UniProtKB/TrEMBL annotation:
Biological source species: Caballeronia grimmiae
Position of the signal peptide: none
InterPro entries: Glyco_trans_9, LipoPS_heptosylTferase-I, LPS_LOS_Heptosyltrfase
Superkingdom assignment: Bacteria
The protein's Enzyme Commission number: 2.4.99.23
Name of the protein in its database record: Lipopolysaccharide heptosyltransferase 1
């Protein structure tokens, strides 16, 4: 069992370890434990046999009795299997508790100095140390490979199979569209609206329709502000993670900040430009040569010109 509870981008990027494990150990069965909010992600991975999830985030916020009952039910589900090994790739209290409750004599977790919360150490019988000579995602894969003694591919194939939509998506089939993920979970990650407007206008001039997703009312207002100054741009309705993934799978281009859905675009091998302003590009960026590129860095957001050059580098070669 792999334990990676959150967040969206982390759960997406960690899916590559499943393919690594299957290539190294044919016939292996892999289960995944995560928060209910992100359970769709491992469900899209054909290499995951069973997804274990509970409303952990929602219970933490609301302390709802129904959510508590769901958590207790998930513990019973968790303990139905006896695992040869459990690997906690998260390293905090909630992931440690899941690992400890699983029926296994071998529970792997990070060394104390690398844990997100030191108290998580109680759960583990074996330890591993993360690799610091690679970005977060390859380092995670390499850590597991070092522990179990196998080699990994530099650029593994995508593991995702996104469900087909029940009805055709309301997008123009004859005109390529670009998804602009302008919204972020943290204000410091945002890229200025005037720069989004300039990029969207350039995409329209190139024959693309900019589509603007959003998740909150504030994000919807930002999307509307961008669309107001870009003839042809469209504000999407509020979409689920699955619906967003279905749009991403059809996109001619994805441009966005360091957020989970932009990581998904990279994992789906769509032409992707990821913009960094407040987090480390070398540590968290996407990089698939000729297809997915990261620009900017912590404290050094990219210019519009740099962003358009990056778009040219992935669209022309895709």
């Amino acid at each position: 069992m792999i334990v990676k509870v959150s967040s969206l981008g982390d759960v997406i990027q960690a899916q590559a370890v499943v393919g690594d494990l299957h290539r190294a150990f044919p016939g292996l069965k892999v289960d995944w434990a995560t928060d209910e909010n992100f359970a769709d992600i491992p469900r899209w991975n054909a290499g995951v046999a069973r997804v274990l999830c509970a409303p952990l985030r929602r219970f933490k916020k609301a302390r709802n009795l129904d959510d508590l009952k769901a958590i207790w039910a998930s513990i019973a589900d968790l303990r139905r299997e006896r695992y040869d090994a459990v690997f906690d790739l998260h390293g905090v209290y909630k992931s440690a508790i899941i690992s400890f409750l699983a029926r296994s004599k071998r529970r792997f977790g990070y060394a104390n100095v690398n844990l997100g919360e030191r108290g998580a150490a109680f759960a583990y019988t074996h330890r591993f140390a993360p690799r610091h000579d690679a970005n977060a995602w390859r380092g995670m894969r390499q850590t597991l490979a070092d522990t179990l003694g196998y080699a990994i591919d530099a650029a593994p194939p995508s593991v995702f199979a996104i469900p087909k939509p029940a009805a055709p998506l309301p997008v123009t089939k004859d005109v390529p569209f670009a998804l602009l993920f302008h919204a972020t979970s943290k204000a410091e990650k945002k890229w200025p609206i005037d720069k989004w407007i300039a990029v969207a206008q350039s995409l329209v001039a190139r024959g693309m329709t900019p589509l603007l997703p959003w998740g909150s009312d504030a994000e919807r207002r930002d999307a509307e502000a961008i669309a107001q100054d870009v003839a042809g741009a469209r504000v999407l309705p509020k979409l689920s993670i699955e619906e967003m993934a279905q749009h991403i799978a059809l996109a001619a281009l994805v441009v966005g900040t360091d957020t989970g859905l932009v990581h998904l675009a990279s994992e789906l091998r769509r032409p992707t430009v990821m913009i960094f302003s407040a987090t480390s590009r070398p540590h968290f960026g996407v990089d698939v040569p000729g297809l997915c590129v990261s620009i900017g860095d912590e404290g050094a957001p990219p210019s519009v010109e740099q962003t358009l050059a990056a778009i040219d580098s992935v669209v022309e070669r895709s």
